[in-house]
Design goal:
9-stranded mixed β-sheet, Urease, subunit C, domain 1, alpha/beta
Length: 446
């Protein structure tokens, strides 16, 4: 039986319009504008009234750390995808800094096998770039894997590649999108040593912005761009945090070199260290309010093409440790879409911008097959939102780690995700998990 989502407000490809969507199995079979509905025969269909609700293409979160395999105390593919679909995410791309790190194709396939059994959302996994796995990178199939992840600066896990010849070869031979974490370890180490001399073991959280400084990001990003231009690499610079990096990408205006925004840096600025402390410690660091405003503008203007949550669950007990013992990372996968909608309510973005940067942009950037848009023939990955219903469940995040910065404060978001459909299946209905799963491995048109 076909499913009809009737009388919704559809947000898609630069338009906001009233209409209905017919779903046949896994895919969208018809999109009917309001003025044409009277001519249609809907008999025999299951009909759900979407009056008063906005229908967006499902969010494609192209940057998550779901922790499996390696640290199931913090998160698993099952638990973190469950949290994400509650926030309107229908597809995710997971990073390789697991235990063991996903540096070989067999290890990567083990993650795919887990996701096939347990994931609530569609899935793909990055192959990690290591010091000596160039042959694995060369023989990967670009149609089956979202990309290669290179840490040009150290973060959670030990995957940083600092050998210049190894880095050069990764850029030279990578057959697909190369997603890069850009920070310079030399600058960071020098800044950390200065902070330890000044504060000893009691480094305040606000120092994180100076330890993992703008200069460390800019130096590394410049190097990545130079290498990408030299070797014609398809480069995607992850979690841009500075005004200067955004300006550099704008001046470059090269479609083969793109940048990512994260909700962390769009929502928080350095002034928030006072209230949140190490709860918002992440790599790269949250920087100034000027940087935050510049990143919002760069995303609005289309300089930054995608928004990824950089979802990184840690135990709250670890996040409450002193600075040098506290791990970096924030669990925000459930709230990526909520943050973008809240910023749209404030006038920072339009609804069309939100749809583009959370769905269309990732689909284009990663060349996803049949996803990221509300189009006839495409998979029915949809997020249905009530823009007037306050979302106040922040005290109980669904992530296995059980907290977010918002759970520790009394606050709410102005909009709520009501339904999430993955391949035509309701995985969230009326704000609650249905228990159904119908996820698929993502494919790429490369």
């Amino acid at each position: 039986m076909e499913l009809l989502l009737r009388n919704g407000t559809i947000v898609n490809e630069g338009e906001v319009f009233k209409g209905s969507i017919v779903i046949s199995g896994e895919r969208i079979s018809r999109i009917i504008r309001e003025e044409d509905c009277h001519r249609m025969d809907f008999s025999g269909m299951e009909i759900l009234d979407m009056t008063g609700l906005h229908i967006f293409p499902g969010v494609i979160d192209s940057h998550v750390h779901y922790r499996e395999p390696g640290d199931g105390r913090k998160g698993t593919i099952e638990s973190e995808s469950r949290a994400s679909v509650l926030g309107g995410v229908t597809s995710f791309m997971d990073m390789p800094n697991n235990t063991p790190p996903a540096l070989t194709l067999p290890l990567l396939e083990e993650k795919y096998s887990i996701a096939e059994e347990t994931s609530y959302a569609n899935y793909s996994f990055y192959l990690g770039a290591g010091r000596d796995n160039l042959q694995e990178i060369k023989r990967m199939n670009p149609k089956d894997i979202c990309g290669v992840k290179l840490f040009m600066g150290s973060s959670t896990g030990n995957l940083a590649v600092e050998d210049s010849d190894a880095v050069e070869n990764i850029f030279r031979y990578c057959p697909t999108l190369l997603a890069v974490h850009c920070e310079d370890n030399g600058i960071i180490s020098a800044n950390l040593n200065k902070a330890i001399k000044k504060y000893g073991a009691e480094i305040p959280a606000k120092e994180h912005q100076y330890i993992r400084s703008a200069a460390a990001c800019l130096k590394s990003s410049k190097k990545a761009i130079e290498l990408a231009k030299k070797h014609n690499t398809r480069l995607h610079v992850l979690h841009i945090t500075t005004k200067e990096e955004a300006e550099m990408l704008a001046d470059l205006n090269d479609p083969s070199i793109t940048g990512e925004a994260c909700p962390t840096y769009l929502w928080f600025s350095s002034k928030d260290y006072e209230n949140y402390g190490n709860l918002i410690k992440c790599n790269p660091s949250i920087k100034s309010e000027e940087d935050m405003i510049a990143l919002r503008k760069a995303l609005k203007d289309g300089v930054l093409k995608t928004v990824g949550s950089d979802h990184a669950p840690h135990l709250l007990s670890d996040k409450l440790k002193p600075y040098t013992e506290c791990p970096s990372g924030i669990p925000l996968g459930q709230y990526l879409f909520q943050i973008m909608l809240a910023l749209a309510k404030e006038g920072v973005f339009s609804l069309e911008d939100v749809a583009d940067r959370t769905a269309h942009g990732p689909a284009r950037c990663f060349e996803l097959k049949d996803r990221g848009f509300i189009r006839e023939g495409y998979y029915a990955d949809l997020a249905v939102v009530d823009l007037g219903k306050e979302y106040a469940k922040l005290s109980a995040p669904a992530s296995l780690c059980g907290w977010s910065p918002f759970s520790e404060k009394e606050m709410s978001f102005p909009c709520s995700v009501i339904h999430t459909l993955v391949n035509g299946c309701f995985v969230v209905k009326n704000g609650e998990l249905t228990g159904d799963r119908h996820s698929l491995r993502l494919k790429f048109d490369r």
